[in-house]
């Protein structure tokens, strides 16, 4: 929800400041990714209880292993979809928060004698790793 993040920038004509808001809401892919991770964890815990506590029921019933296999396949497919969606969402966040695009959106930086530069480039290493997982 980048549109909720305000940036205060100075105004060259007066002593006041101007508020700039980022554009974009990239929360849906991240929420889908996290929700699927939570459901996967809960299913894994339930399956672990079934395997360890009710092993005889799992061994005797032929439909239970097949149902477990189908559920696991569904989770694998949705995990692939969620990782792709989160990867796209992350690239959109990077594009929206790129220092060069932020400086281009600031009217104060378009003056003839004005030199604007970003202080630091944001570190996205951990976010990139979350997509690879």
UniProtKB/TrEMBL annotation:
Transmembrane segments: 32-54, 66-86
Subcellular location per the Swiss-Prot or TrEMBL entry: Membrane
Residue span, MARVEL domain: 1-133
One Gene Ontology CC term in the entry: synaptic vesicle membrane
Keywords linked to the UniProt accession: Glycoprotein, Membrane, Transmembrane, Transmembrane helix
Superkingdom assignment: Eukaryota
Topology class, membrane: Multi-pass membrane protein
Record's protein name: SYPL2 protein
Record lineage: Eukaryota, Metazoa, Chordata, Craniata, Vertebrata
Gene expressing this chain: Sypl2
């Amino acid at each position: 929800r980048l549109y909720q993040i305000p940036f205060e920038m100075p105004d060259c004509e007066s002593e006041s400041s101007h508020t700039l808001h980022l554009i974009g809401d990239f929360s849906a892919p991240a929420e889908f990714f996290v929700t699927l991770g939570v459901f996967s964890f809960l299913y894994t815990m339930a399956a672990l209880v079934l395997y360890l506590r009710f092993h005889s029921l799992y061994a005797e019933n032929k439909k239970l292993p097949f149902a477990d296999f189908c559920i696991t396949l569904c989770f694998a497919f949705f995990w692939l979809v969620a990782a792709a969606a989160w990867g796209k969402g992350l690239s959109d966040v990077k594009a929206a928060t790129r220092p060069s695009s932020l400086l281009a959106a600031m009217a104060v930086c378009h003056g003839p004698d004005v030199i604007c530069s970003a202080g630091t480039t944001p570190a996205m290493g951990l976010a990139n790793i979350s997509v690879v997982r």
